[in-house]
Structures are given as C-alpha cells and as structure tokens.
Amino acid sequence: MPVDPELLEILVCPETRQPVKMADADLIASLNAKVASGELRNRGGDPVKKPLEEGLVREDGKILYPVDDSIPVMLIEESIEL
User: Fold this and answer.
1) Tens digits of per-residue pLDDT, 21-36?
2) What is the Cα–Cα distance from 42 to 77, expressed in whole angstroms?
3) For the chain, where are the alpha helices, taking DSSP H only?
C-alpha cells in the first residue's frame, strides 16, 4: 500500500523543510542493489539491511527517507544520502 497522497502533500524533510516526493522505481532498484551488496549505509552510519520498498526523495534530490510498510521514516539518522 503506497503512502497516502494527502500525507505526502504535507510531509517535508525534517532537516531542511524541503518538500519530498516518491522515489522512482529505478532509484529504488539501484539502492536495493547496494543493500544486497552491503554497501548502503544510512546517515547514522548503520548498514541498510532490508531492501527498500519505497522512499521519499527530498526536493533537492540529495536525501531519501525510507518508507516502511507505507509509513515514512522521517528521521535524519535513518535517511540515505544520494
């Protein structure tokens, strides 16, 4: 189940207050390849162990916030640098 469109309209990056949008399938696939190889780390420095189902990309395209079971994880330390 995707993120509720009404929720998506009001969500912003907690760090910069920039709007966020759904990540496209190609970006999720490339990040999941890095998850599979153990290369991907979040901004807290922890390896991302679980493949991403969805994500929200900050307006400037530099940060992705993971979405877990249709719930956006809007924590800076859980975000992923792109």
Assistant:
1) 999 999 999 999 999 9
2) 7
3) 5-10, 25-37
What stretches of 4-60 show up as alpha helix (H) in DSSP? Answer: 5-10, 25-37
* Token couple for 66: 């993971």
Tracing tokens 């290369």 back to the chain, one arrives at 39
Measure the CA–CA gap between 82 and 64, rounded to whole angstroms.
Answer: 7
Verdict on whether the full-model pTM lies above 0.90: yes
